[in-house]
Amino acid sequence: MFGINGVEFIIIVVIALVVIGPERMPEYAQQAKEFIKSMRRMAFDAKDDLKETLGPGLEDINWRQYDPRQYDPRTIVREALAEDDAEREKERSETQAQGRELTPAANASSVPPQRLSAGALAPFDIEAT
């Protein structure tokens, strides 16, 4: 909270108590209590206004599905890639069932990568960089 730890907060409270003094402490405590009550009342009024504005369908909303903590980006990417693979396999099986030949572009993903021999340099295109 504001970059201070617990010990510093306690020291500030003790200094405030000494500065305010025991005579004015009940008055300030009463003001703090009234302020907290008014803020709480304003928060509940705002919540009620929001519910009234959005209508009766507000209770039907599943707020849990909008919680970003439940989503893991790695899982989302993994599922998206799995869906792409499933769609590709489905298209391939439909194409083969119809008796058509796969195009080289569609068949390129099934070609295994070629391994370089020991000490060989990877292909490099000077104009591409």
Proportion in β-strands: under 5%
Distance between the termini: 50 Å
Give the C-alpha Rg: 33 Å
Mean pLDDT score:
81
* Strand element count: 0
Note poorly predicted spans: none
What is the helix fraction of residues, given as a range? Answer: 55-70%
Oligomer: single chain
Query: What overall form do the CA principal axes indicate?
Result: elongated
How does the helix and strand content classify structurally? mainly alpha
Biggest sheet character: none
The number of helical runs is 3
Order of helices and strands: HHH
3D architecture notes:
With 129 residues, the protein is mostly helical. The chain contains 3 helices and no strands. The mean pLDDT is 81.
Write the layout of secondary structure elements.
Layout: H1 6-54, H2 73-97, H3 104-107
